[in-house]
Write a structure and sequence with these properties.
The structure is a homodimer. In chain A, strands 1, 2, 3, 4, 5, 6, 7 and 8 form an 8-stranded mixed sheet that branches. In chain A, strands 9-15-20-24-25 form a 5-stranded mixed sheet, sandwiched between helices. By secondary structure, chain A is of the alpha/beta class. Chain A is globular and about 70 Å long. Chain A has 2 domains: 194 residues, 3-Layer(aba) Sandwich (Glutaconate Coenzyme A-transferase); 268 residues, Glutaconate Coenzyme A-transferase. In chain A, helix 2 packs parallel to helix 3 and helix 7 packs across helix 8. Chain A is 32% helix and 19% strand. Chains A and B meet through strand 4, helix 13, strand 19, helix 14 and helix 16 of A and strand 4, helix 13, strand 19, helix 14 and helix 16 of B. Bound molecules: coenzyme A (2 copies). The site of one coenzyme A (COA) has 23 residues of chain A, from helix 8 and strand 15. Chains A, B: Keywords: Transferase.
């Protein structure tokens, strides 16, 4: 069937689920056909995906005004503008929760799922491509399924996936993942073949990752963290295998993972969301024995090599539904080391990962909450300043809270590392200001903290100044007026 | 051994763990002896408990300046003052996490554990009294153990407890709790008898609960929630057994639970922290088939009856370590309905449970985060106003975030119920203002929201006014100036 014909199954007001997670494995043809049609004949839908889409699909769907509601994550600048203008209702969710809510009928009934596949088994089982995301549950829960059979996808993908669907609650058995390499399901998504309403042949490619090479600040962050891991090994709190590692998407997490190639580490494992270039560098180095994720997103060169040589990695990789890769119970059970990026943090260690100046959505909370809350060691990294020093990423009071101080064990900037474990708020502030804050902004934060402490409280604040740094940024375009005070 | 002699095992600078959870089953003699000694010869310690202590022990230890550091929870007004003055370093923790951190050596080494017991088995196994809390892991991880053998505790307590200790990570097997009535461990705390350094005979009583009878607002909150449960049954999202229930401590949660006695509910279960009067009323009514908790805290009259007739309840009760009662993975697996109390909420549904005006600690986050994050349905209740209307419990921007909007499905005040599932921030604000806010403060919040929306953003705010309600409360003693604007 043509993409246009298949897209006719999707009508105004419907709830539609699509494959796609961190620019990997998204349905490519049907969304384009939808955008095309909407330009001629307007309609809108609720679109749920795994996470972000590649190939500018969110931009194209936004421009065509197809998106009335969008969840649970995005990273597109056009869609971001529409969200912040209040034009698209964006429901920012913990990535492990979306299908749980859908299964419990708390998000309505899914009409159509559109899933990219590299193969269909004889019984109608769908073999996903470079991501699993929420595809399995979307296909199972939707009334109708459209499959985009991507003929350009490497044959070697078959067998990498491990599809397991938790039972309905309250009668759910424990999910039997006990290590990153636990295989507990099937290598395909088992659905009733009669639900397959259309098969569309495609051959589009995933968008490459946009991770940048480490700059000197990013490298300094990685170095602080590598040193910390060594100290933890010396203190007997970690072994040379550390613990299963989760690393958020992006340049900083990638640089930290690269840093593990050198140093006294061995038999490392990953239990993460997205497998990036650094994952394969670590596998190639022999330091990493196994990597579990929900998607593979690589630079163009790495992608060509990995997809060609998948057999080389076959026994050391699993792709899981994001409900499993991010599952609170499994993250807690495995005792993960979680490394995620903060947009800003406050002096008490509360973290904002999503809202610029408390109001404008950047991307979404993604999986960071799933991991940070339940990990054995929750690490957040950020550069101490942004926009050449116009912005301090350490502020008196974060303008939005995604991760409360309870869920932040370690904060790292290029300035240094703050070990917050077992500390009370006043102690946390001291350690954060002394170790992480840029020298430029340190005196101003010290002044704020001293004045707040003089007023008292478990978590001292001067409420009338708590958000003044963000107010300055909003009105003056920078926080430099705070330096003068 | 006398309490004074046993207390000599505890010396300046030590890390000490004690039994006690929501005023139930705390060690009673040794803490008093410590306070006594410190009045004569000052010293201080780090004190970890399960949760709050009864018998004014936290007050007495604070007055004697025994507490240098205190975790993970408290409810005492004298200790609260010392915490807010910065005199006691209070580490407010998710109640499921304390022993996990201790086990991983992230909180130092525990020197001495002091555990109230109703019996000691021949092999040195400790049978706790009315709470389990963190007692099991404290006894296992401490260098030395002091047992307070309470001769006044009812014999019927033996057999109620189910002690299970999760394995060390990363090689942990799934914890096999699959229902509130799963028994997976031993009825006593298994420790090496050679570690028992002292046995002190006591006969003190637990403090009774201080839950008040429902007032008309509390009753209205309960009524809204019962109506909501009925609607969820009608919509096919819940059955008449609902889901395993967790109810926070306090008057409001108790009133909601009482409300379940009438109405179309049957074969209810609880998977909660503290079992209150309402739990036993529900058991007596036949509506509740099983209750799992970490402690029993009752009014004086109910306590006499329950402790006398424990045999009657024996097959329908389990007391577990708080690491299990609050375990993120188990809460997620069972699909719990979590009902907790907010101090204040903002128009987007972020909840503050701990900090008055963002600075002064009330009690602590307790188990609310363990449950709210991982439940199938996370409900927060609060009266719409406090102090006779001087305070609106719904504000533009909470002065402290304990639970982010992602973790709050339903908000209820005496005014009504806001169902926030699947809504974007701007939609959440509309539903919260219309349904939960007191009529007195509704126009002011509508003004704020309208002005914020005019400025834009995914989560619109006027930063310079966001905390003005709390500033007014701090400087003028009330929020009434906001009404005039
Ligand atoms: C937090 C997050 C936005 C950081 O992104 P990043 O690309 O690694 O970080 P950068 O330092 O490059 O910052 C991105 C932008 O924000 C700006 N920025 C950084 N700190 C800022 C601050 N405190 N205030 C305002 N803007 C800030 C940067 O200047 C940059 O702007 P630009 O795009 O105009 O150049 C990103 O990690 C994220 O979306 N996290 C949430 C989801 C998540 O954690 N997922 C992990 C599991 S996959
Ligand atoms: C939030 C919490 C403090 C509410 O306690 P509560 O006793 O049920 O609620 P009340 O309405 O009686 O309020 C308690 C006090 O706070 C005051 N208060 C209520 N809302 C307030 C607000 N928004 N701002 C300032 N003070 C407020 C009340 O006036 C009352 O003051 P008083 O003690 O001087 O009379 C309590 O539930 C708590 O500590 N929760 C956190 C731990 C938790 O949730 N555990 C659950 C798992 S056990």
């Amino acid at each position: 069937m043509s993409a246009e014909q298949a897209a006719e199954l999707i009508q105004d007001g419907m709830i539609v689920g699509m494959s796609g997670f961190t620019r990997a494995g998204e349905a490519k043809a049907v969304p384009l056909a939808l955008a095309q049609r909407a330009h001629e004949k307007p309609f809108s839908i609720t679109l749920m995906t795994g996470a972000s889409l590649g190939n500018d699909l969110d931009a194209k769907l936004t421009e065509a005004k197809v998106l009335a509601r969008r969840m649970p994550f995005q990273v597109d600048s056009t869609l971001r503008k529409a969200i912040n203008a209040g034009e698209v209702m964006f429901i920012d969710q913990h990535l492990s929760e979306t299908v749980e809510l859908l299964r419990n009928k708390q998000l309505g009934k899914m009409d159509v799922a559109v899933i990219e596949a590299c193969a269909i088994t004889e019984e109608g089982g769908i073999v996903p491509t470079t991501s699993v995301g929420n595809s399995a549950s979307y296909a199972i829960l939707a009334d109708k399924v459209i499959i985009e059979l991507n003929l350009a996808s490497p044959a070697g993908l078959e067998g990498l996936h491990d599809i397991y669907i938790p039972q309905m609650r309250p009668n759910r058995q424990p999910i039997p993942v006990v290590a990153p390499d636990s295989r507990i399901g099937t290598p395909y998504i088992p659905i009733d073949a009669s639900k397959i309403a259309a098969i569309v042949i495609t051959e589009g490619k995933d968008s490459p990752s946009n991770v940048l090479p480490a700059d000197s600040e990013t490298q300094a962050i990685a170095d602080h963290l590598i040193r910390f891991f060594k100290e933890e090994i010396d203190a007997g709190r970690l072994t040379e295998s550390l613990l299963p590692l989760q690393a958020g998407i992006g340049t900083m997490a990638n640089a930290v993972m690269e840093g593990l190639i050198e140093g006294p580490f061995d038999r490392l494992t990953m239990y993460s969301e997205v497998l990036q270039d650094s994952t394969f560098d670590l596998l190639d180095s022999g330091k990493l024995t196994f990597a579990s994720g929900s998607s593979i997103t690589l630079s163009p060169k790495r992608n060509d090599q990995v997809m060609r040589e998948l057999d080389k990695y076959r026994n050391r990789l699993i792709l899981r539904p994001q409900e499993l890769s991010n599952h609170p119970g499994i993250v807690r059970r495995l005792g993960i080391i979680a490394i995620n990026t903060a947009l800003e943090a406050d002096i008490y260690g509360n973290v904002n990962s999503t809202h610029v100046c408390g109001t404008r959505m950047m991307n979404g909370i993604g999986g960071s909450g799933d991991f940070a809350r339940n990990s054995q060691l929750s690490i957040f990294v950020t550069k101490s300043i942004a926009k050449g020093g116009d912005i301090s990423s350490f502020v008196p009071f974060v303008s939005h809270v995604d991760h409360t101080e309870h869920d932040v064990d370690i904060l790292v900037s290029e300035q240094g590392l703050a070990d917050l474990r077992g500390l009370a708020p006043r102690e946390r502030a001291r350690v954060i200001i002394d170790n992480c804050v840029a020298p430029l902004y340190r005196p101003a934060l010290n002044r704020y903290f001293a004045e707040a402490c003089a007023r008292g409280g478990h978590t001292p604040h001067c409420l009338e100044k708590a958000l003044s740094w963000h107010q300055a940024l909003n009105t003056e375009g920078n926080m430099r007026s705070l330096l003068a005070e």
